[in-house]
Amino acid sequence: MMDWTDRHCRYLHRLMSRHALLYTEMVTAPAVIHGDRDRLLGFHAQEQPVALQLGGSDPAQLAEAARIAEGYGYAEINLNCGCPSDRVQSGSFGAILMENPALVADCMAEIIKAVSVPVTVKCRIGVDDQDPHQVLPDFLAQVSAAGVDRFSVHARKAWLQGLSPKENRDIPPLDYDLVMEMKGLFPHLHLSVNGGIGSLDAAIGFLGRGLDGVMIGRAAYHTPADILLDADARIFDDPLGRSAEEVVHLMLPYIADHIAQGGRLGQVTRHMLGLFQGRPGARGWRRHLSENVHADGSGPEVVLAALDYVTRQDA
C-alpha cells in the first residue's frame, strides 16, 4: 500500500471505524534513522490504533528504527516480509526474506528487545519455486521462536523472478486453506489472513472459520464505505452509525487545517474518491473532485460541491 495509506488516508479511515487497526505505508529502517522523521513517522493522534510497517533486514537498524517509532507513539511495529517490488528485493527485504527465516528471527528478536509495544510480521506463503506447505510452517516456527506471536499471512506466493508487483496481486492463485492449516498447526499464534479479500462478508467468514484477524488492503482503499462503515457493528459489536456523507463533513475541518498549514486539497481528497463507489452520483463526486482540487484557493467548498452530486441523487 505504498503511496496509499498515508496519514490523510488513515485519518479518513479512522472516521469510519473506531476499532480497525490501521497500517502505515512501509517505511525502510534506514529512512527512519537518517531521514525526515516527522514526515515519515508523524501522524494525527486520532488515527490510533495505528501500526508502523517497517522494511529492512539488518537487525540493529530495525531495532533502532523501532525504538524511534515507539517514541512517536505507534501501537505496533510490523516487519514487512511480503512486498515483491524490485526496489524492495534490491534492498534485501520484503518478500525475499521468506528465503531466510533465521535472519527474520534475528531481526525480530532485536526489535522485541528494543521496544515494549507489540511486534508483528506480515509475510507471504512463499516465493518463487518454494513449496509453501514446507516453507510457511518452517517460517512461522522459526520466527515465533524468536518471540513473535502475531502474523498476517498474504495467502499468495510471491514470484520475484518474471512477474511485476502488479502481476503479483493476481498470480499465482490464493491458498486460503493453507493459512487455515497454519492456525491448526499453531493454535497459540494470532494469525490474520490477507490477499484478495474484497468484502466485509468475506472477512467475517474467515473469522468464523477460526482465524484471529483479517487484513484488507485494496478493497478498503477503493471501496472504504463498504468495508469500514459497518465493521465496528458487525465485528466489534460497537455500532458507530456514521454515513459516508457524515464522514465527508467530519473531514472538512481536517482539510481546512491541512490547507492552512500549506498543504494541498488533492493530497487529502485523492483518498476520498471511492467513498461513494456504487452509489448514484458517485461519478459526479469523483469528477468534480478530480477537476477542481488543483485550482488556486481550492478548499472544503470544493468537497461540499462534489458531495452535492450524491445528495441530489438521494433526495
Please provide a written account of the structure.
This protein is of the alpha/beta class. It has two domains: 7-235, TIM Barrel (Alpha-Beta Barrel), CATH 3.20.20.70; 244-314. It is 48% helix and 12% strand. It contains 16 helices and seven strands. It has helices at 7-16, 29-34, 37-41, 59-72, 86-90, 101-114, 132-145, 176-185, 200-208, 218-222, 224-228, 231-235, 244-260, 265-269, 282-292, 300-314, and strands spanning 22-28, 50-55, 76-81, 119-124, 150-154, 190-194, 213-215. The protein has a seven-stranded parallel β-sheet. Strand 4 (119-124), helix 7 (132-145) and strand 5 form a beta-alpha-beta unit. The longest helix is centred in the C-terminal third of the chain and has 17 residues, at 244-260. The chain is globular, with a radius of gyration of 20 Å. The mean pLDDT is 92.
Radius of gyration: 20 Å
Global mean pLDDT: 92
In helices, the fraction of residues equals 40-55%
Q: In total, how many domains does the architecture comprise? A: 2
Would you identify the CATH H-level superfamily of the largest domain? Aldolase class I
- Taken as a percent bin, the fraction of beta residues is 5-15%
What is the CATH T-level topology of the largest domain? TIM Barrel
CATH architecture of the largest domain: Alpha-Beta Barrel
Q: Would you identify the regions where 5 or more consecutive residues have pLDDT less than 50? A: none
Number of continuous helical runs = 16
Biggest sheet record:
7 strands, parallel
Number of strands: 7
